[in-house]
Amino acid sequence: MIENQELGKAGREKVCRRIGGEMKIEIRKPAENERKAASSWPIWTKEVSSFPWRYEEKETCLILDGEVTIKAGNEEVSFKGGDYVIFPEGLGCVWNIKKAVSKHYKFG
Predict the structure, then answer these.
(1) Number of domains forming the structure of the chain
(2) Please, how many CA atoms are within 13 Å of residue 94, restricted to the half-sphere of its CB?
(3) Which residues contact 87 (CB under 8 A, 6 or more apart)?
(4) What is the pLDDT of residues 10-34, one digit of tens each?
(5) Could you identify which of 3, 28, 57, 99 might form a hypothetical disulfide with 67, taking C-beta atoms 3.0 to 4.6 angstroms apart as the criterion?
(6) Which of 72, 70, 71 is nearest to 21 (CA)?
(7) Which CATH number fits the domain that encloses residue 32?
(8) Beta bridge partners of 87
C-alpha cells in the first residue's frame, strides 16, 4: 500500500510505504530544520552492493548521494540523494545499492 499526502504549510510531499504488514518506510524531502539537525549526525558510506539488514531500532537518515532500492517481502521502495528516510524498528529487508551511497544517520 502506498500513501501520498501533503505535510502542512511547507507543502513537502511525504511518501509512506507499507512493507510487510505494519512496517512503513517514510521517504520525503527534509524540512530545513531536519537538514540542519542531520548535518551533525555521523556519516555512513557504502559501495555498490546488496546485503540483508534488520532494524533493531528506528533509523532516520538524510541521503547525501547515491541510489538505493530496499526490498522487504514482495515490496520495494527506492530513494536517492536529497531524500529524508525513516526506517521503522523491526523492519527486515535487503539493501540493493545501485550507486554508492553516503548518508547522515541517527538511531532511536
Answers:
(1) 1
(2) 11
(3) 25, 55, 58, 59, 60, 61
(4) 334 445 544 445 578 999 999 999 9
(5) 99
(6) 72
(7) 2.60.120.10
(8) 59
